[in-house]
Amino acid sequence: MENSVKKSNEHSGEEDKERDIQENNNGHMCLAITNCNGETHAKLDEIITHYEGTLNQKISHFLGYPTNQNFDYDALAPLLHFHINNAGDPFMGSSYGVNSTDFEISVLDWFAKLWEIKKGEYWGYVTTGGTEGNLHGILIGREKFPDGILYTSQDSHYSIFKIARIYRMQCIKVGTLINGEIDCADLKTLLLAHKDKPAIINLNIGSTMKGAIDNIDMVIETLEERGFPRDRFYIHCDGALFGMMLPFLEQAPSITFKKSIGSITISGHKFLGCPIPCGVLLTRLEHINTLCKDVEVIGSRDTTISGSRSGHASIFIWYALQKKGLLGLENEVHKCIMNACYLKRKLRDAGICTMLNEYSNTVVFEKPLDCEFIRKWNLAYEGDIAHVVVMQHVTVEMLDSFVDEFIKTRLRKPLCLADKIGAENCTCILHI
Ligand SMILES: *Cc1c(COP(=O)(O)O)cnc(C)c1O
């Protein structure tokens, strides 16, 4: 049904209207809350069942965003009978007794091991997502260096620029190389021009659009070379997607607290796959003491950005880690990377400009012209480029039909994308 609705919709306002009316008429999509006596169970069940069908349909074509849709938390269904709230600092306990902070701390311990920081030396919490992790990490940097300047590459996630505005921090955009990683030569020049102020640096461990990894070692080297010793800079690592993947890839750059970094964050609903948005933030314990205030009403320390926090989120993450194990995670990372290579090869063989960074599952290519095709496959795009993020639910069959359809709807010669993804990845008449 979803399909026939989509096909009849050729983006004209008239037809859009007609579709809305159709969906309202058959009653399924009418979600307006109007019944004073409360709606019947039967009616509500019908709506939810229909919505479930829509979701299944969407997921079968879901390629553009880095969320893993392949999971099963049915065993946790009994926990939906409880409101579990982890308000406050997970390490201080809370007077709100219905909490899951024991699970939360197990999760944090697991990440501490992954990123090589000892228990007792780290602090962290389960956030509402990567954005809150970034908010917290950059706040630590700002509190440490109130007059510091935030440096971040132009390819950073939009949350970083928003955070700079929220905190009213001076934010300097650093250029990127063609592959999307931070350009240390540009950073060097910018640092030199602002030598008098400490540096707070956000690094992309997997940039959103191109899946590029900023080089932590080279950034630290650049800082030191430019006269910024350890006590004059703070580095936050935004590892939303790759922070969870790189530790499982041999030879990949290591993301570790053994380097001079201050904090790392990941999104729990990206690689791990959680039904609700969540994330993990880890930092050094020493940084937290400057942030905290005791709050009597919750019997805890106020070290987190949000007050009430989902207790279910910690349990979802805990359950996923327990169930998969290190080996399971490693297999999933390898599978995603292999399928990403497969997609890159298929697109290239079809004469389509395409780029895939090392250690990345984000395949970048020319933005398709057909809006319906973009919508159907839920592609994300920016300017002339689009991408597919090959997650666990993406099968070879999905990729095959995606490429077949792309070729059929393409109807144009390759665009020159040499300046966006590199001449070696470009298939235009000049570069092939
Ligand atoms: C997705 C993403 C974020 C934001 O994560 P949310 O969980 O959506 O808040 C931050 N940084 C990068 C690089 C991302 O890809």
TrEMBL record:
- Cofactor list: pyridoxal 5'-phosphate
Residues bearing PTM N6-(pyridoxal phosphate)lysine: K270
Domain of life assignment: Eukaryota
Quick one: where's region Disordered?
1-23
Keywords in alphabetical order, please. Answer: Decarboxylase, Lyase, Pyridoxal phosphate
The record, for InterPro entries, names: Group_II_Decarboxylase (IPR051151), PyrdxlP-dep_de-COase (IPR002129), PyrdxlP-dep_Trfase (IPR015424), PyrdxlP-dep_Trfase_major (IPR015421), PyrdxlP-dep_Trfase_small (IPR015422), Pyridoxal-P_BS (IPR021115)
Family under the similarity heading? Belongs to the group II decarboxylase family.
Q: Which NCBIfam families match?
A: PRK02769.1 (NF002748)
The entry's protein name is Serine decarboxylase
- Please tell me the species this chain comes from: Medicago truncatula (Barrel medic)
